[in-house]
Amino acid sequence: MAIMKRWLLVLLTALGALSLGGCGYNDFQRLDEASKSAWSEVLNQYQRRADLVPNIVATVKGEANFEQETLTKVIEARAKATSIQVTPETLNNPEAFNRFQQAQGELSGALSRLMVVAEQYPNLKANQAFRDLRVTLEGTENRITVARNRYIQTVQEYNVLARSFPTNITAKVFSYDPKPTFSVQNEAQISTPPTVDFGAPKK
């Protein structure tokens, strides 16, 4: 009798596993972890950019009569972007996610304007430290784009699973709500790296 109960338990466990696998449960776990991993890389690259800003600001401050308003906007945008607390719950909170997007977009815009204004200062353009920082910033913006695109792809897979039948039933049972992704408007705003034109200034 004990042996029969044991085999019945094994059978029920196997059937349960097959059922969960067939309804997309395991896929939800896999894609949820994949999206978290991809999002961590997005945050990593945003932090890398934020860490560059103090050095860029310090270098630019060395240029006499540099436009203070442009510099101030970069400093304020960085402060705002780094002040937003990002937690795992942010991925499931469209409002918090959008606030984070907007802050990062503002920093992108401020850095872009800074680089354009820097074109008007020959001494700054000739500064090796500034040139090195510019190249590093450009590379970081590219890494941000790659990381963000990977996140978008994983979230797309997750959201398709959450909305498709019959896995949408599993999503409702286990509260697997669709995850927010970069909106078209904000994506267009922050996906473009700062404009860096180091050719001869227009006369």
From TrEMBL:
Where is it located?
A: Membrane
Q: Known InterPro entries for this protein?
A: LemA-like_dom_sf (IPR023353), MamQ_LemA (IPR007156)
The record's comment on protein family reads: Belongs to the LemA family.
User: What membrane topology is annotated for this entry?
Assistant: Single-pass membrane protein
- Give the domain of life: Bacteria
Query: Is Cell cycle a UniProt keyword of this protein?
Result: no
**Protein's recorded name:** LemA family protein
| Primary location | membrane
Print the keywords alphabetically. Answer: Membrane, Transmembrane, Transmembrane helix
